[in-house]
Amino acid sequence: MFQGMGNETETLNADFGFDPKEVNFLFLSHAHIDHTGLIPKLVKEGFEGRIFCTPATKDLSEILLADSAEIQKHDADFINKKSSVAIDSVAPLYEMEDVAKAMQLFETVEYNEWLKVDEHVEIMFSNAGHLIGSAAINLKVTENGKTTSITFSGDVGRYRSALLQPPAEFPEADYIILESTYGDKTHDIASNTIDNLYRWIKKTCVDRGGKLVIPAFSVGRTQEILYSLNQLELEHRLPELNYFVDSPLSEKATAVIKSYTNEYNERLQNILKIDEDPFHFKGLKHVESVEESRQLTEHKEPCVIISSSGTADAGRVKHHIFSCVDEEPNTILMSGYCSTSSLGGRLLNGARKVEIFGDSCDVLAEVGQMKSLSAHGDQDDLARFIGCQDGEKVKKVFLVHGEYLVQQELAARLNRKGFEKIEMPSMHQEFELE
């Protein structure tokens, strides 16, 4: 699902570029909505195949897709109510019944277990370290007695994640499809998320008496923020405020993530020995109903609000930004990557006016960014991830999930590592493998 692409978003989500009825299998790397968000639409348009993923990905996908359907309906109703056009002028991409039909097609596979899905195709998931349940997808495709190995990286995590185990090595592949989100950057490992978060809370809420609104994806990013706030409490540095998580999805996702402690890294495993819930602390309140969320937009006391989505283009956080972006004491603190055309991207690029729900809003609140929270590996991480492969044996690397100029820089780095044949496909471009 495309989000935050401005006027292009609707067009990009409208057409798959293939006939869903002709697809036999869907191999799913992880649950984030940019990877799962159009599955119910795929089913709605005729896909009846099997969907393979890890158990955690299935659990997270179920709650994410239900939430996506609900958000689309809520946003469509909100826009139609404000519009003088006919009430059905904006329609969601799919509804809850489409989500239910899609979930019936899911089948789970554990990490590092080869599964023969038909006479030609075998699949194995290896840990990608990006999110609970995230996987690189390793395929063996056999035709006319010849086997071709293909690996899709999914989203590659960081080797110094606050919560998760690092990405695993994967089998030698003939072809690799590699994400490239941060292919031109290196994360600042000296930047301390916990200290940065403390500074933003003190500056906004304690010193200025404002509201700190943090757009954060409900799965992965919100839990990292809660973990950091929990650490501040353990260090007796957490300011006495109300900390709201305004996303029912986040609470459900946190419960799922707590049930997969075997995927936590060694440091978090040790913290669990002294703190049975690393995502809870004094002052934390979960906002459930839409009515409670509306009341929170009118809340005038200093507080911290964590709400999705991370790019601020959809969900409840958009309403919170709408209510506080024109007041100087407040801060909008982005928690990760935002495309330049998303609301979060426009705010980060210094826009003095932004359009939200059709209204033009002055940007008087401070805008900041927590770059240290990214769950995507940087250029060094991506080079390390692919480093388990023999560059001479890999026939081609396809760079996806990133901007073209970024891919060019990553391609140059991979060339130096011995990967000579690199493609940067355009949308719907097709390739024939040898």
TrEMBL record:
Residues 3-194 form the Metallo-beta-lactamase domain. InterPro entries: Beta_Casp, MBL, Metallo-B-lactamas, RibonucZ/Hydroxyglut_hydro, RMMBL. Coiled coil: none annotated. CDD domains: TTHA0252-CPSF-like_MBL-fold. Keywords: Hydrolase. Residues 222-347 form the Beta-Casp domain. One of its GO terms (molecular function) is hydrolase activity. It holds the Pfam family Beta-Casp. This is MBL fold hydrolase. It comes from Segetibacter aerophilus.
